[in-house]
Amino acid sequence: MNRFFDALLLLTATSLAAATTPSEPPVSVEIAPGYQAALQSTYGAREGAVLRSYIVGSTSEALRSAHGECSLSLDVVLERAAPTHPTMKQQDDNPALDPFRSVYINGGASLTGHIRAADGRTLATVTDSYFADQLPIVSAGKDPWSDARLAIGQFTSKLVKACRRQTAAADASAH
Hints:
This protein is 48% helix and 21% strand. By secondary structure, the chain is an alpha+beta fold. A four-stranded mixed β-sheet has the order 1-2-3-4. A hairpin with a 5-residue loop joins strand 3 and strand 4 (122-132).
């Protein structure tokens, strides 16, 4: 019975904290049109949604860490990504591939982000690219997109840092 009340108390506290946390700025995530078809045909139809969810999750986490100091719109474009381990489609296409023991060099991602003012003007553009080009630096994670996730985390950190600077500059010029 005590565990039930503890869980209820935790749920209530979490709900209240979420209700009092400033809302995050809008984030849009797109896959570059030239890369979308290659992503689907090479890695599988579901992989675009997987990568998009990684980007949204990483961006949301970075924005929460910014504690409301980034209040501008963010547009993210996944320019290119490559897996560290075979995706389900690659394993289906080639049964000799092992989901964990087969490792690809050059897993990672390249992203571009635009920080936009309320009127849609681009205030800053952030680009970042990381591909593990040597076996010793390949991520030890077993997720097919392990190195892409590292790249996404690096990118979102830079994007939110730039957004904080732009928000501060916009606030300073408004006063």
